[in-house]
Amino acid sequence: MVCTAGPAASGALSVMRETLGMTMEMFIHDETPTDEVDRREKVLSGLADSVRDLVDATIRSTVPDDELAAVRAEVAALAARLRRQQLPGPAGVHYNSEGRSWNWGNAVVGLGNAVAPPVEIVHDAFGSAYAEMTLGAAYEGPPGMVHGGVSALMLDQIMGETASGFKRLTMTGTLTLRYRRPLPLGPVRMDARIAGEEGRKITVEARIGVPGEDTAVEATGLFLIPRWASVDETEQGWSRSAEG
Ligand SMILES: CCCCC/C=C\C/C=C\C/C=C\C/C=C\CCCC(=O)SCCNC(=O)CCNC(=O)[C@H](O)C(C)(C)COP(=O)(O)OP(=O)(O)OC[C@H]1O[C@@H](n2cnc3c(N)ncnc32)[C@H](O)[C@@H]1OP(=O)(O)O
């Protein structure tokens, strides 16, 4: 698989734009065939699931100190094994000409990122999306409750994807949140929809809460298609995963 970041990696690095002092070289046109991407994704996401479990186990473990120290040594050895072959930087967003995109490092939906909650966003129609997931001990803010920044992070992601629809590049311009009631750790659901569009400005409304209960956090966001970004580079746009 070709998945090295930077111009040398894919002579066809078509999306490299330096504007507004910002480099978008991490959108990487990468002609790895979709079946190869799917295969790698499956193995990588399995590892990330296990590491996520390790994070939860670490937070909640009450084993004796010497056992913690012994586990630490084993984990360090595993990290060293993975570091034998590494990307020079973060994973970036890759896409191929078949319409497949993959962003394995993304902080919310990255299938290779054990820090990301296991969120699978469902786009039921253009301009509308939802996600159901379980947030465990790693996402705690107030005791037993989801950290407010984690709610904001997850809402930003679903809202950004909803604005984009994987057909155009959008960035969060302004995000406004109203925390109406504490959100307990456990099963949660997010919903998002495009509420309006005007030129390069897309307004998205969203909420998160316990499934079937009153909204805990509501959000309104203005997402912008940056001046420098082209729209509809492919007819079908990009899908995030084999299923997406
Ligand atoms: C191209 C190929 C792409 C390949 C894609 C492949 C696969 C896609 C895969 C994944 C993508 C899908 C989903 C992504 C999902 C989630 C990602 C999470 C979201 C984020 O985590 S994202 C990080 C945080 N985000 C930033 O890092 C933004 C930093 N910032 C900037 O990059 C610029 O600032 C920008 C671009 C925002 C605007 O720059 P610009 O030059 O385009 O804007 P410009 O000046 O032309 O203004 C035009 C009109 O918008 C108004 N306006 C401007 N800025 C505003 C603001 N902030 N709030 C409210 N209104 C604003 C003006 O007042 C004017 O209004 P008016 O026309 O009425 O005067």
From TrEMBL:
Alphabetic keyword roster: Apoptosis, Cell membrane, Cell projection, Cytoplasm, Fatty acid metabolism, Hydrolase, Lipid metabolism, Membrane, Transit peptide
Membrane-topology descriptor: Peripheral membrane protein
The Thioesterase domain, residue ranges: 144-208
Reaction it catalyzes: dodecanoyl-CoA + H2O = dodecanoate + CoA + H(+); tetradecanoyl-CoA + H2O = tetradecanoate + CoA + H(+); hexadecanoyl-CoA + H2O = hexadecanoate + CoA + H(+); (9Z)-octadecenoyl-CoA + H2O = (9Z)-octadecenoate + CoA + H(+)
CDD domains recorded: PaaI_thioesterase
Location within or outside the cell: Cell projection, Ruffle membrane; Cytoplasm; Membrane
UniProt entry tagged with the keyword Membrane: yes
Main location as per UniProt: membrane
Its EC number(s): 3.1.2.2
Top-rank taxon: Bacteria
Keyword Lipid metabolism: yes
Ranges in coiled-coil conformation: none
One Pfam family named in its UniProt record: 4HBT
InterPro entries, per the entry: HotDog_dom_sf, THEM4/THEM5_acyl-CoA_thioest, Thioestr_dom
Family: Belongs to the THEM4/THEM5 thioesterase family.
Protein's name in the database: Acyl-coenzyme A thioesterase THEM4
UniProt organism field: Nocardioides humi
